[in-house]
Structure formats: structure tokens, C-alpha cells
Amino acid sequence: MTTDAPAIELKGISKAFGPVQANRDITMSVARGTIHGIVGENGAGKSTLMSILYGFYKADRGEIFINGKLTPIPDSQAAIRAGIGMVHQHFKLVENFTVVENVILGAEDGALLRPSIAKARKLLTELAKDYGLNVDPDAVVEDLSVGHQQRVEILKQLYRQADILILDEPTGVLTPSEADQLFRILERLREEGKTIILITHKLREIMEITDTVSVMRRGEMTNTVKTSDTSPAELAEMMVGRKVLLEVDKPPATPGEVVLKVEDLRVSRGGVERVKGVSFEIRRGEILGIAGVAGNGQTELLEVLGGMIPAQGGTVSLFGEPIDITGKHSNGQTRRARGIGHVPEDRQDEGLIMPYEAWENVAFGYHKDPRYNSGILMNHAAIKDDCVDKMQRYDVRPPNPRLPARNFSGGNQQKIVVAREMDRAPDLLLVGQPTRGVDIGAIEFIHKQIIALRDQGKAILLVSVELDEIMGLSDRIAVMFDGRIMGERLPSETDQNELGLLMAGVTEGAA
Amino acid sequence: MDKMPKWADVLLIPLISVVLALLVSGLVVALIGESPVRAMEVMVRGAFGSAYGWGYTLYYATNFIFTGLAVAVAFHARMFNIGGEGQAAIGGLGVAVILLGVAWPHWTIALLAAIAFSALFGAAWAAIPAYLQAKRGSHIVITTIMFNYIAASLLVYLLVNVFRVPGSMAPESGRFAEPAHLPSASDFAGFLGFPASAPLNISFFIALLACVFVWVLIWRTRLGYEIRSFGHSETAAVYAGINPTRIIMISMLISGGLAGMMAINVVMGEAERLVLDFVEGAGFVGIAVALMGRSHPVGVVLAALLFGALYQGGAELQFEMPAISREMVVVIQALVILFTGALDNMVRMPMERLFLALRPRGAVGAEANPVPTSPVEPHEPPKVDPQGSDR
């Protein structure tokens, strides 16, 4: 093994899915013992490239060299043999197995488990000591926090003797402090000579931890630079191909009368209380941002307000008039009739019907609107006209109302939802994760729309796990943890650290 | 996706599937020492070679249109209604009740009453499994199958103990009165040469009307929009304020009603009395018809025609070629169901790949996505403006 050869070298990798060129002639080299970042918009081809490296796909052309040696990777077994480990965005753990059971899963030494478990336990102790990867080997995975579950994923790869770790959007589910801990672990791994590829869309993380960074755009690797030689603004420009406003430009808020008042709201799902007595209000011309790590009750809060699930207790009122949140008239239709718009957290499962054409989606939820109907039949021509109009004003590309929703990019899908929900100028707009999986250009556009709606004197409830987004858009910030609001802050009077502590459930007294 | 033109999706693929099924059937026929070519010829001639053959083919097709539409409507709400068999049987009960109970002056009024009662009874039979699914989460496949058995047993009981003509040994009702008899093909289309013995009757047109009804319902009304939305994604439907219980109930009621209407053709149009086991598997064939017809009324008519021809041609086959028994005919029909329904993807995937390869820009790497749940980011539409959409 030549020690000065790059850990990974890709030469001329190309991959097409039918007429779509997902990767085009990609050449990349990552030195041993470094952290290499890959950034790019959705659909730029990052995941395809990593899938090729990990053997999920076969490249049409090109060669992979591992430690200077030509290494064909036809399947993930070959990738593991070549010392490549992958930590997926969505963990692949058996929830009711213990840590040690998960670690040996698929890498058992024989038919009997006992020797493998003993061996793994010993190794886990060593790994914990070497890298600061402390996890109780006998804890059941579902009892662990998300951050610890991610450590189990990393341990799994190290147990398989991975020298090269690929991490796909690893901080998406972590609190800021958990993300910090992850970065400390990655630094230790780097010191021990491991090579790490970090795929992320958060430029701040790229700047903080990587040594070198590659930018992908439209299936091509457009730039590779030393991290110390670049800046977030420059990276963003390389990703999009034009100058981008990273900061949201917004005039100060002028709050008016109270639009939404929520008192002591309680919501259970699957027998577990998810929202444990939440109270807040939003005024005209104001954006209230709800920060928090995913899974702390924000989803249920949005779903109750949007009429998707019933609440178990508490009251909600709009302009002082109570809203039915438990009865059989609590549904999405009655909410829309009251002037509540809802951009749901998951556009693919909730906000859109993916096989429906764009125009059919434009009517979704508003299909009883008299404008869209004539008698008992739906007026398809009227809906299509409206769709063409909305596509033009909300810059949906391609502006083709007959294209099924699944064929639009994430950003354009989201624009269809945003157009539908915002264009009626609802008194209250519920927005969940408005820019998840959306490219930078579309993020800019959607943020502008949200602020424009606020400036029309509408109330907006914004739920997002992206702290930057919350801080950039909100006029007030409430932090949710374990079904409760831990505190409210003004964006001008707080910072990421304070919010991060609140997101982790640390209250003022303890902090 | 949009990998194939629509004509290939709705016509070419079913056609290839049928050809494959017939090839395998031919192999089976050859194995028992008969000539596949002659068997094929007998079947085609039996089904389409004479007005008499057409009279039977279209009669069977009428049944399958009703049951196929029933399954198709439920499919749009992602309900798998396997209970067509039982719903049709109970629909027959409704026809018998109203035609025996009232002295009808003319067949037209009697037909309207029979439509109403067959649909009502069929819908009522579907209502119980639908309610159990909507409110209790009992799986509709299990409950509708069980209701088929209950319906069959109920019919036996009623025919033996209630409807049987006193003194008769046959488990069947008395004949309906003369004014309630539907015109048969020889009455309204005798000029085409339909003999009086052919069972085709005016219900065929009711079936075609039902197709129009289903098309308008599913693709032109708000209810149809809600049914399709719910069928594609329940969470999205809930987000839009569409009530799942309501959609499950309504779609299953319509489905059961359509299945029940099959009895108009058999009980009122052909037997002119309620007989035992008159559904004869049409409820199950309806599943294959809906699958092959891709839950679209036009597809359902075409698929129903194919299965009507298989039934009629199969009957001729066992008559003219005694070595090919009734069971062999069932094997052939089953092969068609297997290839068009269950093995649909076997033909579809290579065809999609072929169409991709034939695309002008797709010459490179026209390989289908091997991992369905892959971590690949959503791609730009292949068909529409591949460059311009990526800003």
C-alpha cells in the first residue's frame, strides 16, 4: 500500500438515468486523513456519486481508485471490503436491538452469536476510548437519543474496519450541540488517519470542519477548493451559478391585532402525549418561528392547527372566535374555510399527490372552490388556467400544468404548494419546513413570499428545524422541546448557542 | 417517470401479456397431444365466428363489465374489493324480490326497478365490510371474501326455503312474469342474425352506460377527485380535509352497487328467475378485468370482451375437442389472468427499458433504476425540457 496515494480517487465517472445525466465525467481526489466536503443543490448529483462509490449503482464510465489501487465496486459488499463505510441520512438500525446487536448485524463471525458479541463488546470499548464514541453497548437503540443512534451507525462502520467514512447530511436531525459533538468525533477520526466525506447543504458546517470542498452542479463537479481559501458566499455562488442573498432582507414587523391564540393545547398520538400544554399567540403582520429538533411536538402542533388530527385538550381561537379542534367538523376543509392556509412539512406525502398533474395539485384541498366547479362537475379548464397563472407568478419551472408533480424538482414542487396556499392570502398561514430539500434559488424565492405575506398584514406560524431559517425569518422565536415551549426570544436578542441550549431542553436557570 | 407513451401502456403491454399467455397455453395444449393451432382456431371461431358466438361473448362480457367496473371504482380508492361475487349474488336477490313482488306492466319500468334494487342490494352487501374497514380497520380483502361465502349460503337457504316453487325439486325461484322479460338480442338486433338462443340482451347497453357513469364520476366530479386523491395518499387526503371514512364507504357502496347490477344481465335478462350460483365466478374475473383494463372504463370494456371471448371460445373448445377438458379451459383462462394481472411488471419493465433506449437522447446508459428505494435525488423530468428546468 502506497501511503501517499489519495484515499479515494475518481476518474471520469459518468452515470445517466435514461436521458438524465446524473453524473458527468467526475474526477475527484481525496487525500488520506482529511475531511472532504461535497456541496450542491438538490439534484446536483451528490447522492448518485456517493451511491456509485458505495456500490448501489454502477457507473456507465469511469474508474475508482482506493489507496491508489484500481478497485471496481459492483456492490456494497465490495465497498465494505475496500474499507468504505456509509452513514445514511436515515439510520438503518434495528430499533429494538441493543447497540452491540446492531453493530454485529450482518458481520457475525458464525452461527452462534455469543463469540461475536463478546468480540464486539471488547472492540466497542476500545473504539469508545480511541474516538470518544461513548455508547452503552447494552442499551436498546430505540431508547437512545438521535445523536447516540448516529454514533451507533458510525461504530457499525468502524467495526467493519472502514477507513473511509461517507456521511450523508449527518446533522439534519441533530441539535446544534449534538452536531458539535459529532464534529469533535470526526476530528478524532481524522487524527487517527480516517478519511471522511461529508455531504451537506449547510455551508457553515463545510467551513467549520472540512479541509477541502467540492461543489457539484447539474451533475458536474464544478470546483474543488481548499476550505481555508473560500467563503460561504463564494460557495453558494458556485453552487447556484449566480450571486445569492444568504441573508433574508426584511423590514421590521408592525404587529397588529391578535389573529391566532392557542391556550394549553394538548395533543396525543399513538397513546403518547406529544404536545403538553402549549400556549402562544400570533398577531397580524408577524412571523412566529418555532425552533426545535424534529420530533418534539412541532409536527403535531401544525397538524392540529391544520385540522389533520384532533387535539385532546386546550383551546384555539382565530380573531377571538373559537376553532373546533376536537369535534367531527375539525378538518382541513373547515380550516381553509376559516382562512387558514397550510404549507405542510412533507410536500411529497401531504402537500401534493405525486402522480397528479400540476393543475390537479393546484386544486388540492380547494377542489370545492366555486371557481373550480360548474354544477356537479369540476371545471378542468378553469383549474388549468389558474394553474398556468400561478406557475407564472410563482416561477414554477417548467411552467407545464400537464406535468405530474413527481417530475418537478423539489424546489418547484414546493413552489406549487406555496402558490396554492399563499395565493389566497389566508389570514393565518401555517408553514412547516418550507425549504427542506429545496435548492438555494427557490429558498430565496419562498422566503421572500413569506415575508411579503407578512407585510400584507397576515399572521404566519413557521416551523423549521433549520435554525438559520428560523433566525432569518421570524419576528419572535419560540423553542419547543419535549412537547413544551421552553421559552420565547427575539431574534435580535438571542443567538444560536442560546437557542441550541433551549432546543436541548436546558432552561434559563440551568444555563 | 413518463417512460412510455400512453398507447403502449394501455394497449401494447396487455396485448403482449395476452400473446404470452396464449403461447404458454399453446404449449400446454401441445403437451396433451392436441394441436394448439387448431385449438386457437376453434376458440376464435367459437367466440367471434358467428352471430351466435357473438351473442354469448357479449353476454359474458356484460357480466364482466359490471364486475370489472366494480373492482375498478374500489381500486381508485385503493380498496381491494374481492367481494364482487357475493355482492352480485345479493344483487340477484334484489332483482328477484322486486320482480316477483310487484306485477310490472312493462319491461322498461321493471328494468329501472331492477337496476335500483340490484344496485341497492349489492351496495348493502358491500356496506358491512366497508364499515368494518373504515371504522375498525378490518382488512377489506378478508371481510369481502368472507362475505362471499355468507352470500352464497344465504342464497342457498333462501332459494330452498323461501323462493322455491312448492312442489319443485329445483332450488330456484318461479319465473318472472312475461312483461318483466328483457328484450334479447334477437328481439332488438335480429337483423344482425342473433338467434333466439343467444343470451345477449338489453343489459349490455346498461353496462355501457355504467362505463360512462364511472368515467364521469371518477374523472369529472369532485367526488371522483376525492376518491382518487384518497387512493393515491391517505395522509395527503387528510391534509386536504377529505374524510377517509366517507370515501371508503361511498366508493365501496358504488362498487357493490355495480357488482350487484350484474344480476340484471343474468337473472332478469337470461334466466328470468333466480337460480343457484348464477354468478359463476364473474366476481373474480372482474378483478382480472379491472387489472388488465387499468381501472379505466374503456380498458374494462376491452378486457371484458377478451374474457367473454375466452369463456365462450372455451366452451366451444371443450365441445369440439373432447381431449381438452373443462379444466384445461380453466387453465387457459387462469394463464391469461396470471400474465395480465400478476405478471404485469414482467412485460412492463423490459418495455420501459426498450422505450427509454429508443429515445433519441437516451442512447447512453438506458438502464432502469435497479434500487427502487434508492438514495438518488429526484431527477428532472426526462421528457420536458431537460436543460431549461434546472436553472
Tags for this model:
heterodimer; A: 511 residues; Rossmann fold; 2 domains; six-stranded mixed β-sheet; 33% helix; B: 391 residues; mainly alpha; 69% helix; globular
Please outline the helices and strands.
The complex is a heterodimer of chains A (511) and B (391).
Chain A: E1 8-17, E2 20-30, E3 35-40, H1 46-53, E4 61-66, E5 69-70, H2 76-81, E6 84-87, H3 99-104, H4 113-131, H5 146-159, E7 164-168, H6 176-191, E8 195-199, H7 203-209, E9 212-217, E10 220-226, H8 232-240, E11 258-269, E12 272-283, E13 286-291, H9 298-305, E14 313-318, E15 321-323, H10 332-337, E16 340-343, H11 347-351, H12 358-362, E17 373-374, E18 377-378, H13 380-393, H14 410-422, E19 428-432, H15 440-455, E20 459-463, H16 467-473, E21 476-481, E22 484-489, H17 496-503
Parallel strand pairs in A: 3-8, 3-9, 6-7, 7-8, 13-20, 13-21, 16-19, 19-20
Antiparallel strand pairs in A: 1-2, 1-4, 4-5, 9-10, 11-12, 11-14, 14-15, 17-18, 21-22
Helix pairs in contact in A: 14-15
Chain B: H1 6-31, H2 36-48, H3 51-76, H4 84-101, H5 107-136, H6 140-163, H7 185-188, H8 203-220, H9 222-232, H10 234-239, H11 244-271, H12 282-292, H13 297-320, H14 326-342, H15 344-358
Helix pairs in contact in B: 1-2, 1-14, 1-15, 2-3, 2-13, 3-8, 3-11, 3-12, 3-13, 4-5, 4-6, 4-11, 4-12, 5-6, 5-11, 8-9, 8-11, 8-13, 9-11, 12-13, 13-14
Describe the structure.
The complex is a heterodimer of chains A (511) and B (391). Chain A has two domains: 8-240, 3-Layer(aba) Sandwich (Rossmann fold); 258-349 and 427-503, P-loop containing nucleotide triphosphate hydrolases (Rossmann fold, 3-Layer(aba) Sandwich), CATH 3.40.50. Chain A contains 17 helices and 22 strands. Chain A has helices at 46-53, 76-81, 99-104, 113-131, 146-159, 176-191, 203-209, 232-240, 298-305, 332-337, 347-351, 358-362, 380-393, 410-422, 440-455, 467-473, 496-503, and strands spanning 8-17, 20-30, 35-40, 61-66, 69-70, 84-87, 164-168, 195-199, 212-217, 220-226, 258-269, 272-283, 286-291, 313-318, 321-323, 340-343, 373-374, 377-378, 428-432, 459-463, 476-481, 484-489. In chain A, the strands form five sheets. Chain A has a six-stranded mixed beta sheet with strand order 6-7-8-3-9-10, sandwiched between helices. In chain A, strands 16-19-20-13-21-22 form a six-stranded mixed beta sheet, with helices on both faces. In chain A, a hairpin with a 2-residue loop joins β21 and β22 (484-489). The longest helix of chain A is centred in the N-terminal third of the chain and has 19 residues, at 113-131. Chain A is globular, with a radius of gyration of 25 Å. Helix content of chain B is 69%, strand content 0%. Chain B contains 15 helices and no strands. The longest helix of chain B has 30 residues, at 107-136. Classes of the chains: A alpha/beta (511), B mainly alpha (391). Chains A and B meet through β1, β2, α1, α10 and α11 of A and α9 and α10 of B.
